[in-house]
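queue> holo job accepted (FE2/S2 (inorganic) cluster)
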Amino acid sequence: MNFQIQIEGAEATFQCGSEETLIDAAARQGIALPYSCRKGVCGNCQGQVTVGSLVPGTEGCSPEAGASAADEHLFCKARPASDLSIRPRSWYRVDPSAIKTFSARVFRITQVADDVSILQLRFATGVRVKFRAGQYLQILLPDGQRRSYSMANAPHESDTVQLHVRHVPGGTFSDKVLQTLKPGDTLKLELPHGDFWLREDSGRPIIMVAGGTGFAPMRSMIEHMIRKKIQVPVHLFWGVREPSSHYAADLIERWQQQLTNFTYQAVTSSGLRALDTQGYRGSLTEAVLACGLNVPDCDVYACGALGMIDSLRTALCNDLGLAAEHFYSDAFVSN
Ligand SMILES: Cc1cc2nc3c(=O)[nH]c(=O)nc-3n(C[C@H](O)[C@H](O)[C@H](O)COP(=O)(O)OP(=O)(O)OC[C@H]3O[C@@H](n4cnc5c(N)ncnc54)[C@H](O)[C@@H]3O)c2cc1C
Ligand code: FES
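queue> job finished
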């Protein structure tokens, strides 16, 4: 049975069956609601149901996604049991056919750190993909599983995608499949996905906080800003465990020359004290707090482990007063 879902205060409605999630039904009908993990972990899809009821067991928030008010629900899990009026954090119209499946060939695989490889894929001649700087794709594995990776290249490089893959011990894709991949092999991809993309018209200074391979979408956004000559101040914090895992020193040096208003803070959570001169030693949240930026005036983009994002959101939004709508994140949780 189909129910009518009304976005409160807007001339926007969509139909949703009780077997479908609100996020999926909205997307199918050209309405993008915020999401990231789609598995009830990151909390990015949280919104309110102001009228109507949900299928029992699909309402509320999982403890992993954080505590919330009684009428807050995860729209990537929520399924309707009646007509609803909903209040998402944001929404916009999209072309429902924008998410497409592509075949891509492996062009190059480069191991850039002990636990990170850069996978460069190319599309067939004449095939171009569309995405926003910061979004992610899903690799469709032959057994039906999916794995999410953020595009590290800027959208104007539309005949290729660059992925920064952290090697997860025992991981189906990043350990087993990646080891066997060689140039010329084909992968099936679906893109674009996600609400983590550069709000280029905002005009506010930007704080980017990357944990490990969370650097990938920041690379996409910064390359896009250079291409589009977007000149707001950018403060990049990049945290890794060991200094040797900062695998893009040359690139960051180029950004320092190309962008007039760019600062970079390397952050390591371990390492020898003698290496302290190479960056801040501690957590990413501590590093951002220590820098003295006027956080409430900025747009913050955070990407990496869920714990880092939660700690940063609490410190910047709850403690420093950054409005939640200026905190954008992709939590790199398992698929
Ligand atoms: C929106 C989004 C974007 C992402 N972008 C990137 C990216 O650009 N680069 C990147 O390296 N990763 C990224 N990730 C994370 C990546 O998709 C997962 O780590 C993925 O599960 C790895 O697949 P795998 O087959 O190698 O390991 P799996 O077979 O999925 O996992 C093997 C084991 O490791 C655990 N595990 C896997 N990943 C994680 C994790 N991140 N944290 C904790 N435990 C984990 C699993 O629970 C499982 O027990 C992204 C995730 C999301 C949701
Ligand atoms: S919790 Fe719903 S998208 Fe992550």
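queue> Residues 55 and 81 are 5 Å apart (CA to CA).
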